[in-house]
Amino acid sequence: MADLGLQLTCSYRAGADPQQLEAEHPPDGGWRAWMQVLGAHITVFCTWGFINGFGVFQSYYVEALNATPSAVSWIGSIQTFLLFSIGTFTGRALDAGYYYHVYRTGSILTILGIFTTSAAKSYWQVVLSQGICCGLGAGLMFCPTIALTSTYFSSRRSLAMGLAATGSATGGIVIAVIVQQLLPKVGFGWTARVIGFVLVVLLGFSNVVLRPRVRARKTGGIIDLEAWKEMTYVCFTIGMFLTFLGLYFAFFYLSSFAKTHLGLPQSTSFTLLIVLNSVGIPGRILPNYVADLIGPLNLLIPMVLIGGILMLVWITIASHTSLLIWAAFYGLFAAAVQSLFPATMASLTKDLSKAGTRMGMVFSVISIACLTGTPVGGAFIQGMEGEYWGAQSFAGGCMIAGGLVLYISRIYKVGWGLGKA
Which segments cross the bilayer (predicted)? Predict the structure, then answer.
């Protein structure tokens, strides 16, 4: 998040690299920095908000396209995969000084994808428009913007990135409400177009306010090979890979579960998804405030473990009220994981001129988990003749395993003690 009015003032040490000095001394506040938080919030709204609200499309597409839940989940999974997978390239593009080119291209692709989705008539047309086109657009915008944000803050970095990450909750809520209110009245085509018009306005604003701060680093490869020699970084990457294998299953399948297992009407199942995203607002802000005090990795580990346990608790849910309560609790902890993840990633990067590259590398690895996790869950459901407990066990087990590997990462960083991590 970039600081719109502050100029970096730092005295030059003898022999110091001006670029390195600039990277070492972020403003940590001010009008320009907080405007970047707002721009990043909008970016996350337009990328992750669309994905967090995918559950409303999941249940609609199964009926409208006459497709299996597993086949439909590939649409959202491809979108998530592309958002993360091209992070290695877009993160390096930020470091090299091509942020504007990448972000504007992403904005155009995202808007184009939504409007072409509104005219789609078949499964493969939706895959191409919403899955691939919107996914590419989101990938071009998300990683470099999150990395850009991290270069503006030091002591308040987790809070700033948590506020930015709240965009996935507000986006999920707004998109779910739009679909809930308009789909029965004007049909899918105009519902998607309304979402498209909303994103046109928001992305127009974010294109104006987002500004890179650290000078371009033209030299250097796309991949920082030195990062893979750091066991803290390696274990963190593996831990988040396992976590993301299970994290988004509920966001994709909660609405379908409510309809098929509890017999709830579509409007009520959409309300559950709104609840799941609504609790994500405090779930992204409060943990990140605490993370600035005790360290983001220290907080991320219990959030992941509790989220995994809650996924297993979902197996026992058998009523509307209990599902509503469960959705509120899971949404709270899942939101904390989503927002603490980039904040923790940024805390593992000492040289901010490499923030985009190192963050993009992790994004590319976990993109495989995002691509396969929910379709595997859908395959469990299909193979078990509509039963969800196998998929819920898979998702919960992956998250718990991820939390344990993250703890190993913490040991490599600060040891067995109670230090800030």
Answer: 33-51, 71-90, 126-147, 159-178, 190-210, 231-254, 297-317, 323-348, 360-382, 388-408
